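agent> step 3/5: call structure_predict on target 'Cytochrome c oxidase subunit 2' (Synechococcus lacustris str. Tous).
agent> reason: downstream docking stage needs a structural representation; sequence fetched in step 2, passing through unchanged.
tool.input:
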Amino acid sequence: MNSSSTRINYSALALVSTWTGVLVVFSFWMSRQAYHWLPVQASTAAPLVDGLFSFETALATFVFFGVISVMAWVVIFNRAEKYDMSDAEPIEGNTRLEIIWTVIPALIVFGIAFYSVRVNQKLAVLGPMEHIHRGDPIEEVGGFLGDRLPAEQVEVTARQWSWQFNYPAAKVSSTELHLPVDKPVTFRLVSEDVIHGFYVPAFRLKQDIIPGRAINLNLTPTREGRYRLRDSMYSGTWFSTNQADVVVESEAEYNSWLLQAASQPLQPGLSDAVAEYKQRQAEGARGWPTVVPAPAPMVNVPGSNQLPHNG
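tool.output (status=ok):
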């Protein structure tokens, strides 16, 4: 065997090692930057989800720029000479290379899967699911978290296109969600018509609300502020208006709000879809056909959707 064919090119090895080190440092830096791309962290679930996102960002950065680096090296240093019309050297296969490019992606996928499973085990946010029939009364039901901690109970009703939040213990209803900070809460999610999505970006949790089922979702807010609940499932014409404010406040402020809300008479809650539909009808209902929005729910506190929020 020709000894020159097995000679190690230390210059190339040093260059590849140095560049790999640069990619590792850059990928770590990108993983730190990924935290700044997301809304503020406002629940116990947020750091776990953000950590997973940061990890995936680092891996994606390393793989992407690693592949681009190999492509650039080949294009710059291994291209054919001008006017070279000869065929490339025939290669039957390289078992070692095939093993490498099979094992490395497999390890990456297994790493992501392992991390994701660990995060989901720590979250443990989804409680039991029960089948319901339309028109059945909504009963107060303890969730998965409620079996271990005294969680606040909030009934969430989604419809086309408004949200309604009921507090059974205080006999209060609102179209603005209020929560005490650092206190576990169990949501009982119900849809009156189609599939909706309960999603608060600052909480990092999303749960589909399926007609005919009541789904318990558990979380703990950790940061005071005003956030935005959005419908994450397309549900028709005024889907973009199906939003509500989420106010996380101190326990004292929360209890004061409940007492004040309980003294208020029922009145129509917020529903931008109803207002826009009436305006459209007044203008002659030109354009596309649409489902008639459900009437605005009758609540104690309509709240406001015009105030600035944190995410």
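agent> step 4/5: record observation. Confidence is low (pLDDT under 50) at residues 137-149.
agent> proceeding.
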